[in-house]
Amino acid sequence: MTVEPGTVRPMKVDVAIIGGGIAGLSVGAWLAPHCDVVVLEAELTLGYHATGRSAAAYTECYGAETIRRLAKASREYLTTTDDLASPLPVMFVANKRNPDQIGALLDTFLPLVPSLEHLTPGEVVDRCSAFDVSGVAGGVLEPGAFEIDVHALQSGYERTIRSSGQPIIASARVERITRDTNGGWSIDAGDIQINTRVVVNAAGAWADQIAALAGVNRIGLTPLLRSVFTFNVGTESSGWPLVVDAGEQWYFKPEGPNVLGSGASELPSDPVDARAPEIDIALGIEKINTATELSIRSVLNTWAGLRTFTTDRVPVVGFEPTAPGFFWLAGQGGYGIKTSPALGEFAAALILTNSVPDSISEFGITRESLAPERLHR
Fold first, then answer.
1. Within 10 A of 126 (CB to CB), how many other CB atoms are there?
2. Inter-axis angle of helices 336-353 and 22-31, to 10 degrees?
């Protein structure tokens, strides 16, 4: 439930958050008990774009090292809050043509995830009957991975914001951002006018456009489209892990009575309401069929989402040095769900106290590693 469009007129807040996806809602949840906040979402539904189209997996073995550290910093919140986590091990699989990928994965991930297990071809097949032992070189299992209830996570952030008396306004597309006479910011979003000390740019694929509205240099964000599909395998698959190609060319996982799969595509896109191209679905099916014994012939449903990256594939979080009070929270790529607790807390602390919480810094995360300055060099 959100505030109906048109019910809010001029308002003054400490922080205005542009974007009602997981990034904006998470920082809003950490800010709301401490200052006056408003969350503005352009769509009628919160989390409509990337948030609502996530594969919803928590793994500490995916993304750049900073991403993996952010995931580790988020683990306690995800595993101790409102039954958000359901066990779902992740199994990386290498085929006989690329056996060296197993060693490379272990070298990369073991320092941060010592619980990883090296699987023989037979052990891979034991865990997922989609493979034939003759085509598999081996695997790596992450037993502590899990599936995240994205709806429950998002709803929890929403509840925290609302219970603090702070508004979340849907159908509030930002049209104009200017400096006000007091050195803060004025935001026009239809019939809503907001004066604020801080603007948080959590607009996902549209974050560079929001920066341009404010007269701030774009950070160089790239939205990449990824298509996903579900299919039936005609056999029991509920006990399978999330299976990921060791070269990150495809993945699949159980999804109720069916299986969700993707060719792990990254198609450059404008910021749009993403739709799955037929050719991308076909290529994804071909990749999974080539690697497994599944023989997918048809799909049940398809959809697509935009995963928006910075140039170094690490989120940008911090105040823009050329525009006081303009705060970046963007570029989460495909990692925004699993890192949202840490990123929300991290961003809120910078805004409120200009400091990094010990609960975040203990995982080796620094303000410099996420700061916008690194992308302006």
1. 12
2. 40
Distance (Å, whole) CA 302 – CA 162: 33
CA-to-CA distance for 205 and 251, rounded, in angstroms?
23
Residue 235, Cβ density class (10 Å: 0-12 exposed, 13-18 middle, ≥19 buried): exposed
What letter would DSSP give residue 4?
A: P
Q: Give 105-144 pLDDT, tens digit per residue.
A: 999 999 999 999 999 999 999 999 999 999 999 999 999 9
Judged by DSSP in three states, 212 sits in: helix
Q: With beta carbons less than 8 A apart as the criterion, state whether 251 and 90 touch.
A: no
What is the pLDDT, as a whole number, of residue 234?
84
Please tell me the distance from the alpha carbon of residue 119 to that of residue 99, in angstroms, as a whole number: 12
Helix (H) or strand (E) holding 307, with range, is strand 301-309
With cut-offs at 50, 70 and 90, classify the pLDDT of residue 1: very low
Domains of the chain by start residue, with CATH: 11-51+150-219+312-376 (3.50.50.60), 92-143+222-309 (3.30.9.10)
Q: Following CA atoms 332, 334, 338, 341 in sequence, which dihedral angle do they give, to the nearest 10 degrees?
A: 20
pLDDT of the residue at 53: 55
**Could you tell me the two tokens for 336?**
């925004």
Mean pLDDT of 198-226: 96
Q: Which amino acid is at 115?
A: S
Strand partners, 118: 140
DSSP per position, 47-103: TTTTGGG---EE-SSSS-HHHHHHHHHHHHHHHHSTT-EEE--EEEEEETT-THHHH
